[in-house]
Write a structure and sequence with these properties.
alpha/beta; Immunoglobulin-like; eight-stranded parallel barrel; seven-stranded antiparallel beta sheet; 26 strands
Length: 499
């Protein structure tokens, strides 16, 4: 099988906002307790945070982490998670039917983020609460001193403000499963009023309004329009969420699902621009894809979890080789829409549908999906280039004209580097790739890294890795003409550097 692509230094899609490589930690399952926080672990630091987990988060180069939810946030009172530990209440979390001990809250998570060298995207409860609690919380977090809430923070041992700059106005408020679920008009009104008082409190922040929980929601489209009718001049981003599954064990169809993600992005972008035109606005609303991943492996076992206990193992998907390919196609899709997608969160980060897994009192290890994300975050910084592709296509159960080659290129001018990310969707044949790197005459191939395993159900574990990056040889670069081989069913990173 053969494929050709052309990229040109001057033909770009847009600049990559590093925040598209964000992630997410919710008070759910073992994400917090027995995930990032395990005070009795041999690797625990003075605050109880696992240093081995922090090391892996740094390896992924995650610029920010969304916190504390997720469905959890719609019933969460932020005041329960601050102040003396011995005075914090144990609460029923109705979102996940567990007990929340509130040992970790805003200030502790901010400390963890500093240790992990990442920022925080804070989510607000607009399910059971509203503008008053939101402005108080913002004042607690971001105002220096001299007011009730800022001085309360200082009395809790946090002298300097956190200065959280990115805030989510609720979570999945279109979903009937959500605590405090609202209609689009109800949510749009409360989001607009909350946004107003928050920006009066701290004009430097950016706000994300809730879009649809996924594209197949019956209210999708109308929800976005109605919410933006209320909030357009008060918010900066609209959110999107999507999870993909392979219940049918149909790998070609599974690997084509990124086309749906691309269509989702383009449709929401069109709605944003429609409301912009309708309101005669000069402002552009960009997108925050603040939940995305593969999620389906753990559904059956989660139904058997005992209710009303602390941090049970929930949503602990063990990811396969084919999941790594699916995540790779989703990363490429985000990059191909870098002109409008400015924020994104791989959901989630540790133990819960996560690239990092931990054993209680044991090892932390990398899942198969860890590596494509790490590669993209490390090398996908700069300007996304347009890459016209010529290759064969296939039809699957739900999709037509699916290209066997899914690819994108990023030019990092500061590092004199251009990187091609590519997934060969063909499960049986290697792909002979010809690439024309127009405008990069004085470059050389630095490395070609692949992830592939003939067993598409291969997984990693604490005992060892079966899905991991390997160096690939055999590529030839003659001027700007490059030829190489992409193994069947593989993720590929081709890095070119200036001579």
């Amino acid at each position: 099988m053969k494929a050709k692509l052309t990229l040109h230094k001057e033909f770009s899609i847009g600049e990559v906002d590093k925040r598209i490589y964000g992630s997410f930690i919710e008070h759910l399952g073992r994400a917090v307790y027995r995930g990032i926080y395990e005070p009795n672990h041999p690797e625990a630091d003075e605050l109880g945070f696992r240093k081995d987990v922090i090391k892996l988060v740094k390896e992924m180069n995650v610029p920010f982490v969304r916190y504390p939810g997720g469905n959890f946030v719609s019933g969460y009172n932020w005041e329960d998670g601050v102040g003396p530990l011995d005075k914090r209440p144990v609460k029923m979390d109705l979102a996940w039917m567990t007990l929340e001990p509130n040992k970790i809250g805003t200030n502790e998570f901010a400390e963890w983020a500093k240790k992990a060298e990442t920022d925080v995207m804070m989510a607000l409860n607009l399910g059971t609460r509203g503008p008053d609690e939101a402005r108080n919380f913002l004042e607690y977090c971001n105002f220096p001193k001299g007011t009730y809430w800022s001085d309360l923070r200082r009395s809790h041992g946090v002298e300097h403000p956190h200065n959280f700059k990115l805030w989510c106005l609720g979570n999945e408020m279109d979903g009937p499963w959500q605590i405090g679920h609202k209609t689009a008009d109800e949510y749009g009104r409360v989001a607009a009023e909350t946004a107003k008082v928050m920006k009066w409190t701290d004009p430097s922040i950016e706000l994300v309004a809730c879009g649809s929980s996924y594209m197949r929601m019956p209210t999708f489209g109308k929800w976005e329009e109605t919410v933006l009718d209320h909030t357009y001049e008060h918010v900066d981003y609209l959110s999107l969420h999507i999870y993909f599954a392979n219940h049918e064990n149909d790998t070609p169809n599974f690997l084509a699902r990124s086309l749906e993600m691309d269509n989702f992005i383009k449709t929401v972008t069109s709605i944003c621009d429609y409301v912009k035109a309708k309101q005669h606005s000069k402002k552009q609303i960009n997108l925050s894809f603040d939940e995305w991943n593969v999620w389906f492996h753990s559904r059956n076992q989660d139904e058997e979890i005992e209710k009303w206990i602390e941090s049970p193992p929930r949503l602990e998907d063990i990811y396969t080789m084919e999941d790594a390919l699916a995540v790779g196609t989703m990363l490429i899709t985000l990059l191909k829409n870098a002109d409008r997608v400015k924020i994104a969160c791989l959901a989630q980060l540790v133990n819960v549908i996560a690239p990092i897994m931990t054993e209680p009192n044991g090892k932390a290890w990398r899942q198969s999906i860890f590596y494509p994300f790490m590669h993209a975050s490390q090398y996908g910084r700069g300007t996304v280039l347009r890459c016209p592709v010529s290759c064969d296509t296939y039809d699957s159960l739900e999709y037509t004209d699916v290209p066997y080659l899914e690819t994108v290129a990023v030019h990092n001018e500061e590092n004199d580097e251009v990187t091609i990310f590519a997934v060969n969707r063909n499960l049986n044949e290697d792909m002979e790739l010809e690439a024309d790197l127009c405008g990069f005459e004085d470059y050389k191939l630095a490395e070609h890294v692949t992830i592939h395993n003939k067993d598409l159900k291969a997984v990693n574990s604490a005992a060892g890795e079966k899905v991991y990056p390997e160096a690939q040889s055999g590529g030839r670069l003659d001027g700007t003409k490059f030829q190489t081989r992409l193994p069947a069913a593989s993720w590929n990173v081709l890095r070119f550097v200036k001579k």
